[in-house]
Amino acid sequence: MNKKNINKKIIYCTVAIGVIGIISAGIYRHHKIKTYNMLLNEANNNLKSYKYDEAIILFKEAMKYKKDLGIKNSINLAEKLKINKKSYENALSFMKEERYLDAIDNFKKVSNIDKNLYKDSQKNIEECKKSLVGKNIMLSKESMSNNDYSEDNKYITDITNIDNNKEVKQLQKPMNKKIKSYPQKSENIEKKSQIINRNINKPVSKQQAEDKIKNYIKSTSQEIPNLKVEYDHDDTKSGRKYFVIHVYCIVDDHTATMGWYYVNEQDGKCSKWDLAEDKLVPLT
């Protein structure tokens, strides 16, 4: 084999190796771009589906293939949206538990970075205000009828902190006049005790349980428009069976719960459920 042929073979081999290298590099680059795009698309889909933890993981994985300022911004956005979502979920939980002030505080933390959650939060803030105002007005009137003005003032203060309500201003006038001149006990309290303890130690029916709470509400509160007192369900606490009575008010297009009352099926004794402490408080 002469020198000329050897040189040709060397050239051919070099060219072949070069071509193979170019093809391999192209395949690797294509695979890298394909993987990057796949991660990016999946991350964005998770972002749209409120799966922020998954989105953040995928964005960070994509960063290994390509350093990009846009991805960094997407990670920051996902972190903010995650906090936004958490505030919204906490608010919904508080709203369900009728902890309206806590719900309002958390709804206010939801920013317009997410238009849908922000819009829902603003709507729910108004719903919470309506429910809180309705509930506290009833409780305020109940406390006033019992001459318990310290509690009455607390309920009114809670309302004025969130809403400039005309009915609250009307409640404040008689409260301010009477707060120094009335004892904490009154004939209303005695009357209430008589109503609640009537027929005690005797088994009661659902209707009788409902009537007992209706009489209690009537004796302790001024007339409230659209107030409903209805049997809701049976419940058992500490081995005792109760009829559960739901007291609520219809406000615009929704209902505002004023309280849950428990009537012992065996002796007719009545209690009010303290939601915060999860315990029954006897009505006396």
UniProtKB/TrEMBL annotation:
It comes from Clostridium botulinum. The lineage of its organism: Bacteria, Bacillati, Bacillota, Clostridia, Eubacteriales. The chain crosses the membrane at residues 10-28. This is Tetratricopeptide repeat protein. Residues 71-98 form a coiled coil. Keywords: Coiled coil, Membrane, Transmembrane, Transmembrane helix.
